[in-house]
């Protein structure tokens, strides 16, 4: 029986590009959804995100029952979850953009503004950069991916840091814990590397 993948639509993601990339990576049954009931029946869940942490968290929370459905299906039942860009950042405890605001609190840490030590490294961080694995993970491998962000996840516990990149200093490229994985870069814009990563996510059995 084919797996059902829920791609969360909360008005804060490049949904069509992410959906197309997931199909190219091998997903067959994708529900682009804002319905918590669909999330509760999904085998895998992807949370995209573009924009500000606070606005994205507010939009996600504004869908009645959505955060509870994610907590149930992802946290309590352990289904594979992928957060992309701001969707990854929302896994943190807190985001500092426009003041401190709570996230989902799934992986301890804070999302803070990039402050490159090298003045030549501009913010936002935009373009292709190496992904360097730190903690072995079946979804995250070395390669080059496309980044576009001004804030970055700073995990509290070193074991949750899956990969880094360099932008005037070390920056989190991926986090992972149990059935959760999140990437700061955009797989849907990362060509062959991004599609291969999505394929590994679809095959992952945490």
Write a concise synopsis of the structure shown.
With 206 residues, this protein is an alpha/beta fold.
How much β-strand is present in the residues? 25-35%
Widest beta sheet: strand line-up: 2-1-3-4-13-12-11-8-9
Question: How many structural domains?
Answer: 1
Shape: globular
Supply the CATH architecture.
3-Layer(aba) Sandwich
Number of distinct helices: 6
Q: How is the CATH topology named?
A: Rossmann fold
Mean pLDDT: 94
How far do the termini sit from each other?
Answer: 19 Å
Please tally the β strands and state the result. Answer: 13
How would you characterize the largest beta sheet? Answer: 9 strands, mixed
What would CATH call the class? Alpha Beta
Q: What is Rg? A: 16 Å
Structural class: alpha/beta
> Level of helix content?
25-40%
Q: Regions with pLDDT < 50 over 5+ consecutive residues?
A: none
The CATH homologous superfamily is named: Class I glutamine amidotransferase (GATase) domain
Order of helices and strands: EHEHEHHEHEEEEEEEEEH
């Amino acid at each position: 029986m084919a797996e059902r993948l829920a791609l969360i639509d909360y008005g804060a993601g490049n949904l069509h590009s992410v959906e197309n990339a997931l199909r190219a990576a091998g997903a067959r049954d994708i529900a682009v959804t804002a319905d918590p009931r669909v999330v509760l029946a999904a085998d895998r869940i992807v949370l995209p995100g573009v924009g500000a942490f606070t606005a994205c968290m507010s939009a996600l929370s504004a869908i009645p029952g959505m955060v509870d459905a994610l907590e149930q299906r992802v946290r309590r039942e352990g289904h594979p979850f992928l957060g992309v860009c701001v969707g990854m950042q929302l896994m943190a405890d807190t985001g500092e953009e426009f003041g401190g605001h709570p996230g989902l609190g799934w992986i301890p840490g804070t999302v803070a503004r990039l402050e490159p030590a090298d003045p030549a490294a501009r913010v936002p961080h935009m373009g292709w950069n190496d992904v360097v694995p730190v903690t072995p993970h079946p979804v995250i491998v070395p390669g080059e991916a496309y980044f576009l962000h001004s804030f970055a996840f700073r995990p509290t516990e070193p074991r949750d840091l899956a990969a880094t990149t360099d932008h005037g200093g070390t920056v989190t490229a991926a986090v992972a814990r149990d059935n959760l994985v999140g990437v700061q870069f955009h797989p849907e814009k990362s060509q062959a590397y991004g599609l291969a990563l999505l394929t590994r996510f679809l095959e992952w059995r945490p």
